Amino acid sequence: MSNNQYLELFLEESQEHIQNINRNLLLLEQHPGDSEVINEVFRSAHTLKGIAGSMEYKTMTQLAHGMENILDGARSGNLKITPDIIDILFECVDNLESLLKDIMDYGEERHNDLSTLLSELEACMGSTAGGHEERVSIKTDRQPVVMDQYQEHVVREAMRTGFKAYYIQVKLRETCLMKSARAYIIFKTLEEHGEIVYSQPSVQDIEDEKFDLSFSVIVISKTEKERIINDIYSISEIDTVDGVELTDKDLQEIQARRDESKPTDKGAAKAQTSSRNDITRTAAKSIRVDIDKLDNLMNLVSELIIIKNRIQDIRYNENSEGLEESIEYLGRITSNLHDAVMKVRMIPLQMVFDRFPRIVRDLSRNSGKEIMLNIVGAETEIDRTIIDEIGDPLIHLIRNAIDHGIESPQQRRLLGKPPIGNVDLKAYHDGDSVVIEVIDDGRGIDSEKVLNRAIELNLTTSEEAESLGAQEVFQFIFQPGFSTAEKITDISGRGVGMDVVKTKIESLGGTVDIESQKDKGTKFTIRLPLSLSIIQALLTNIGEETYAIPIGSIKEILDISPDDIKILHNKEIIDYRGLLIPFIRLDELLECPVEQGQYNSGYITTVIASKGERLAALSVGNLIGQYEIVIKSLGKALSNVKIVSGATILGDGHIALILDINRIF
Amino acid sequence: MERAMQNISGDSYDTQQFVVFQVGNELYGINILIAESIERIQPITRVPKSPSEIIGVINLRGDIIPLISMRKILEYDEEDYTDSTRIIITEFDDYRLGLIVDRLLEVLTISTNDIQLSIDDMSDKDKIYISGIINMGDQPITLIDIPKTLEKINIIDKQGV
User: Fold this and answer.
1) Which residues of chain B are within 8 Å of residue A643 when distances are taken between CB atoms?
2) CATH architecture of B15-152
């Protein structure tokens, strides 16, 4: 496996552990004494330290190590978890996260100034009345040796085959100038006699002069102890050298120590690997897949092969009845296969939602508002591509809800509401789409304010404004530069954002709707397609061309008479079940060449399309039918053409463009 | 993908290869490093609201490829496609595009020394980015840097920093 692949694994695993620490720290904050939770955080911090260490990311290792120490203290009862400690731990996780991001972006840790945090960590440990970890105690004649299983195994094996294992502690003179160079010479000398299997601090730390004056090693050798010690004394600037031969009893002690607490300098004596400068952004594109899903795929593929063979046979025998049956069967398998492949790409929204409790906690602290975040339906699965993109828009909506929506506890009491504000995050499947709702019980959106601001910005006129429904008024919020916030806060209210939210969601083929009631709250409803690559679509002629309209955005298909079309504000509209909706002639909009006489039949075939709550009637030509189509990109050169979202290849090899209903009205 | 180098290096032993084609009554060449294949003309699907230089898209063995009319870019009038009309499929950076040309002539291997860098007032066609002129046979060949040309007319995004 190349270094690169290790890196990907490392990034993925670290992200999971950071996520896990975050989640459990939140729990810990509520139940500070829960040893199960402390253990969970400890385990994650420990693993994180291990993997960061093996990748030689020093700062991450240090941080994780610090966290591990605190949690270990808490585990053993030497340390009490206080809110202050939780804050420090949170800060550590944040820093771990930003370090991880550095590694992802630049291939190295860039964040350097962690000395304060590290000393805070130290200070926490200091308050534990000592006795926990005696890492840098020079005076004690023997520091506790903590070897991992592998190192211990090497020592045992060596002792069994007639070698001797020496524990050697070297102390340099205080006047020694280049400690690491001196240490290097000592290491070299020791290596002449045998093999160094363990060192404390780690070789890396010694090289970086991250040790005081003394360090200790375990050497396997056949040479007498006295000779080795004398050799070391022959090197200048050495203060003292102590050597002990390790016995079985020592090893048992070491093992016992490892079993009781697991902090080890795993991989400490490992030599540096090649430089990692060439590794830049290789953000994890992989997903972990439930083995059942893969088994299912495998089964389907085998069935596919069987049926293929059967069809081959039939071709030779020209048995047309069997052929039809086989083709039907083939159809069934391919659609199952499609489902199965789609499922493999599906990931629960949990991946995204897990970040939110932490964000809400911080926001609620900063704003002085008490907020309860209720998450429902985190298990709802959605395509991986969407998972990666949906986080930021959701964070934005949640921030808005907390900053603009939820009132301060005092205000809430005055309004007769419970002082704790609620932000609900709900996800569920609805047909071919996934719906995510962000609901708050705050002050709601003042539609009058929105309208005034819209008029101010020339987005509408006061005459037009009167005929607008609530839904249409709220849509103004999504206009670039629109903000009614009187107070600009750190969190939101700069007038950027909502348009970005909308653009992002629409680029994923989704829609956003707003419902809001003054003093009752606001509800954002995001509707997203389950999957991006294969959709059900209506194929239709428009003029002489063929287009595909996603079924998900079609409400109904009607034939309307030209007399039904009315004019309002210079725009064509029709009355659809008592609702006036715009009538859009697609052939004109798309500038399609039109066959003579196409519209002479008297009736116009019309698709009632919906974009969230909003409807429009779109004139089309002859309908071809409903098909399952594979979405293909038009390529980068046409990425600016917004009216089509992609293309599909029809059975005859021709291309049909897929209309993006969101961009039509 | 690495941007194909169309710059002319100073080494006199270098040779370069160009795909030479005809548009109108002149000859043009593009660096072979960005040319992927040559295709005959096939049914084209128009894309509404796209830049006028993009004629439409074709289905090239399951991939959708936008087509650019070299006639439009070289400022000739559009003409009906004939039996000799060809599509040069090019690939550079993240782009895959087809260039529609009137006729394909040859692949020319030529020493870098034989490429003339520029002539003053060389062309009244200001849409293209010319990387050099070859003056060897009966007719001069204008070498076009396709990525830079498409950047110039905003079909593709600016590359680099």
Assistant:
1) 48-49
2) Beta Barrel (2.40)
